[in-house]
Amino acid sequence: MKKIMTGSEAIARAAVSSGVKVVTGYPGAPISEIMKVISKNTAEDDVFLEWSTNEKVALEVAIGASASGARSMCIMKHIGLNVASDPLNVANITGIVGGLLILVGSDPIPSSSQNSMDPRHYAHLANIPYFEAAGPDEASRLVRYLLRFSEEQKVPVILGVTSKVTHAMEQVELFDEKDDGNTFRFDRNGHQFVCLPFTVKEKVPALNHKMRNIARSIVSPFEGFEGEGKTTVIAVGFAYNPVKEAMEKYGFSARVLKISRVHPLPEQLIEQALESSDRILVVEERDPIVEKEILVLASKIGSSTPVFGTLTKHIPREGALSTYKIGLALSKIFEKEIPEPKKKIELIPRAGTLCAGCPHRSSYYLIRKALAKYEDAVIVGDRGCYNRAAAPPMNLLDVCMNMGSGVGIAEGISKVSPDQKVVAVMGDSTFFHSGLASVMNAAAGFADITVFILDNSCTAMTGQQPNPGTGETVRGEPLPRVDIYDLLKSRGHARVHQVDPYDVTTALPLVEKAIKEPGLSIVIMRRACVLKSKPQKVAKTLVDADKCVGCRTCIRETGCPALVYENGKVRIDQTKCVSCGLCKQTCPVNAIGEKYGV
Amino acid sequence: MAYEIVIAGVGGQGVVFMSKILAKASEGEVKLIANKGHAKREGSVTVHLKIGRAYSPIINPGDADMVVGLEPLEVLRNAHLAKENAYFLVEKKKVIPVSCSLGETEYPQDVEEKIKRFSDKVYFVRAFDEDYPRNFNIVMLGVMASVPGFPVPADRIRAELEKAGRGLGRHFDKGIEIMKGML
After folding, report:
1. How is domain B3-128 classified at the CATH fold level?
2. Closest by alpha carbon to A139, among A153, A114, A160?
3. Do the domain assignments include residue A342?
4. pLDDT digits (tens, 9 = 90+) for A49-100
5. Handedness of CA A31, A388, B72, B154 (dihedral sign)
6. Domain residues of chain B, as ranges?
7. Is the peptide bond before A393 cis (omega within 30 degrees of 0)?
8. Global pTM?
């Protein structure tokens, strides 16, 4: 039976029907939706679900479950794989027991990440199998295949996807059979999971041998030739779709070798392609990883078949692949012109902003007010919704790098530039992810910085997922929450304050004090995300058009999308406004007021 | 050949919801891709939907049979995706970006005129209703379903909407009503 669904749903359903017992991960586009689908389709007793504090912990929990014989899946985005690479590069040599699938979402453009890193390099670093899905249906079949494959080969396996798989929808074949629930137990015999110099010596050659064997003797159902011709196009993962489309649209005829397994490559198929083609075009998104491996193989077998691809500039290395880009590569090879596509019109951008009523807006208003008297103050941001403050109209952030990096970078700046005020801003989820370690470091290192923890009690940017400070599980069951203020009580010499950012009058003097005091000060700005729990609207915030002078101070100070400037006056879009009251406090002529009883 | 539809709007307007209803209501092969990087936060949102046989869900410039927009500027931003004489169904109500309210950028004056240059089949509608601001995407589905040759039958869309269970059928019917006088 087939059903229309997104790639995220397809992956979630396939994992559940393939007997996954533990699913962990850290949210981030494009893989944030999978956990929710699993939680809707399973019960607590069936599958344990956890958005972990970070990707390293997530993978370790999954490894523990796998070591005890349970099939496990660990979800993260490409950047998270850097964080998880520590356990990854040990679990590769220990091997696993229950199937362990690491699902990695990446962002080639990038549209919602700090970089477009190609995570496939980890396949070579850790020397473990890495597959890429061409679409939702294939992703579903791959999840089932790979959980078994991982278990048979006793090695963790990575499945790579992009938003072109997880955010896409198509007809997906459903699985009828479902594995039953066993009870699992950690087997205490042997040294499989003990990595010490005396145990590791044999593990490394064993992994290398296993991978050689996969390369030479296993072809998965997701690889194979299509069509005829002396030109072979090797299409990797999703690239298969635009390759087929470009051939059809522009009228090129070639044999296609579809590849899902990026590492270890199915060598028999590649050798066959090299031996029976006059030329080869390799189409893969981002780095020329498969292309380089093919060149190595060609040199090994003494093939002189020309191989075109990213290294020969037929395929661009940056950005997302398109049918036209592939058409251009084919046009070069076949020496046949193709028509240019219609051009996009240049228009003003419509960038994302903080939501109307977002507590971060009030927090930034407070920080900016308090910093106004310091010349050249540096604001170091972090990863989360609050990095929107780097864009106009706030233009606030001077640094915004990787998860949990802000406090460390702020400490470094403060150590060499003591005349500048240095402020670090991070969210609650970033704090739990890796910020805690840097705050402890700053406390121990006598850093002269002010740390603002914008605590909206969830991982807001990726879809309001729970974190230890939320007080609920993935399934929405209540849990005792970890309170950041309480946690930071054993804070060395740092001072810790907590404020409600909506309450500007009370909060401002505290924020000013925290910035002024020397040494490490921490201010927790605590107010729930408006998307997680919309505040009860007791009043309607309105602009008195007679009083409004059209100065737009409110818009400049807040950047709130509910404030609209029309015909020389500001009006408030009531469909967006949540009456947080911030704009009222910025109006120099008191034109903004509240009407109660709505 | 697939029937190719682009739906464009602003985060929070319900573009992704609309497209999912259409995908579920269509029979047979369908491909969809949501470009929703910063959904809900006032950014541009676009969905590509191909109903029928296709490899990639991504619509190439000049190939779309229909461009639907919940905001005029967002339609213009995607107009190059339309084939010649494609249907353009455009909600007239503008959503002014904060950068325009600040005077840093200017909302283009002649958006409607510029859209008209792309096709003879451009329809500007008023699906937005201050009383039901959250449902005008459903009204727009009714507008789409009224277009001759639209590949998804209206009764199947209505059935999917009812499954979504929020009494959405009447907003859909309003869209059909709007288009009655226009085609």
Report:
1. Pyruvate-ferredoxin Oxidoreductase; domain 3 (3.40.920)
2. A160
3. no
4. 999 999 999 999 999 999 999 999 999 999 999 999 999 999 999 999 999 9
5. positive
6. 3-128
7. yes
8. 0.95
For A515, the domain range is 359-526
Q: Is residue A354 part of a domain?
A: no
Pick from A305, A10, A266, A295: which is nearest to A133 by CA?
A: A10
Min Cα–Cα distance to chain B from A543, Å:
15
In contact, A446 and A459? CB cutoff 8 Å: no
pLDDT digit string (tens) for A552-564? 999 999 999 999 9
pLDDT in tens, A194-248: 999 988 999 999 999 999 999 999 999 999 999 999 999 999 999 999 999 999 9
Q: Is A224 left (phi over 0), alpha (psi -120 to 50) or beta?
A: left
- SS3 annotation, A484-516: HHHHCCCCCCCEEEEECCCCHHHHHHHHHHHHH
Interchain pair B30, A170: CB under 8 A: yes
Contacts of B82 (CB under 8 A, 6+ apart): B6, B62, B64, B66, B67, B88, B118, B119
Tell me the pLDDT of chain B (183 aa) as tens digits. Answer: 899 999 999 988 999 999 999 999 998 899 999 987 654 578 899 999 999 999 999 999 999 999 999 999 999 999 999 999 999 999 999 999 888 988 889 999 999 999 999 999 999 999 998 887 889 999 999 999 999 999 999 999 999 999 997 689 999 999 999 999 888
SS3 content of chain A, % helix, strand, coil (to 5): 35, 20, 45
Would you say B107 and B142 are in contact if contact means Cβ atoms under 8 Å apart?
Answer: no
Between CA A65 and CA A75 the distance in angstroms is 15
Buried b (16+ CB within 10 A) or exposed e, B139-154: bbbbbbbbbeebbbeb
Q: Which of B10, B41, B55 sits opposite A241 (nearest CB)?
A: B55
Our CA-based measurement puts residue A239 at a distance from the nearest CA of chain B, in whole angstroms, of 9
Q: Are residues A169 and A70 in the same domain?
A: yes
> Chain B interface, mutation test: which of A241, A342, A358, A553, most B Cβ atoms within 10 Å?
A342
d(CA B15, CA B69): 9
Burial category of A192 from C-beta neighbours within 10 Å (exposed 0-12, middle 13-18, buried 19 and up): middle
Dist. CA A173–CA A10, nearest whole Å: 9
Task: Quickly tell me which residue has 């950012």 as its tokens.
Answer: A501
Tens digit of each residue's pLDDT (9 = 90 or more) over A162-205: 999 999 999 999 987 776 556 788 999 888 999 999 889 999 99
Q: Which residues of B10-49 are buried (b: 16+ CB within 10 A; e: fewer)?
A: bbbbbbbebbbbbbbbbeeebbbbbbbbbbbbbbbbbbbb
ipTM reported for the complex, 2 dp: 0.94
Same domain, A31 and A87: yes
DSSP state of A432: I
What is the count of structural domains for chain A?
Answer: 4
Q: Does A185 contact B at CB distance below 8 Å?
A: no
Q: Is residue A531 part of a domain?
A: no
Which residues of chain A make contact with B136, given a CB cutoff of 8 A? Answer: none
